[in-house]
From TrEMBL:
Organism lineage: Eukaryota, Fungi, Fungi incertae sedis, Chytridiomycota, Chytridiomycota incertae sedis
Keywords: Coiled coil, Membrane, Transmembrane, Transmembrane helix
Record carries keyword Membrane: yes
Protein name according to UniProt: Secretory carrier membrane protein
Pfam assignment, any one: SCAMP
Coiled coil: 69-96
Membrane-spanning residues: 136-157, 169-189
InterPro entries reported in the protein's UniProt record: SCAMP (IPR007273)
GO terms under cellular component: recycling endosome membrane; trans-Golgi network membrane
GO biological process: protein transport
């Protein structure tokens, strides 16, 4: 018997390609893990292609609102310009009234004789200077008033070692009236008018009065 001989019946019954055919009959997509992964990927792909309706609507509305905002901004700019022009005209009228003396007298308050309003009459850059000079003049008037009151008290106390008390009180009263009025007319008022009307003439009057 030849061991290398091949039986014809076995040659036709054995298929060498039949090995592993059962592996090809298995469906790889039947695995739950693979099918779930594929379904998740498909869902993500569909979601990524959904159009953003809200953002699109917002941009469309933004395009329609832009002209309205521009018109509103233009109106605000026009109003601001009109207010600036009115303020400038008001200041010009105030300057004209101040320079031509059209304001009524308001000082002193108990019996107005002259016009005196630092906030309106004097330019803003010189108001602090005029207020300081006005305080100096008020200090002079205050000292003269105190002097007169002291002399009045001494007059009514009748000290035995002091003579001519009525005359001293009269001098103190004259000082209060005369020096207060003279210093206001010849010293303070020329400075006030010089700053108010920006005139060198009143500066010369001040120099003459102070000398």
């Amino acid at each position: 018997m030849n061991p290398f001989s091949i039986d014809d019946s076995e040659e036709h019954t054995i298929n060498p390609f039949s090995v592993g055919l059962e592996d090809h009959t298995v469906n790889p997509f039947a695995d739950p893990a693979i099918s779930n992964s594929l379904e998740q990927h498909s869902h993500d792909t569909r979601v990524s292609f959904v159009p953003d309706v809200q953002n699109t609507a917002f941009h469309e509305s933004e395009r329609t609102v832009d002209p309205q905002l521009a018109a509103r901004e233009q109106q605000l700019l026009q109003r601001e310009q009109e207010l600036a022009e009115r303020e400038q005209e008001f200041r010009r009228q105030q300057d004209q009234l101040r320079l031509h003396g059209a304001y009524p007298p308001n000082w002193p308050s108990f019996y107005p004789l002259i016009r005196h309003n630092i906030d309106v009459d004097i330019p803003e850059e010189h108001q602090s200077t005029i207020r300081m000079i006005y305080k100096y003049w008020m200090a002079v008037v205050g000292l003269l008033t105190i002097n007169m009151i002291v002399m009045l008290i001494i007059l009514f106390s009748h000290p035995s070692n002091m003579d001519y008390l009525p005359g001293d009180f009269g001098v103190a009263l004259v000082y209060l009236v005369f020096i207060s009025a003279a210093s206001f007319i010849t010293w303070y008022l020329p400075i006030y008018m010089a700053y108010m009307k920006n005139s060198s003439l009143y500066s010369c009057k001040y120099m003459t009065g102070s000398n």
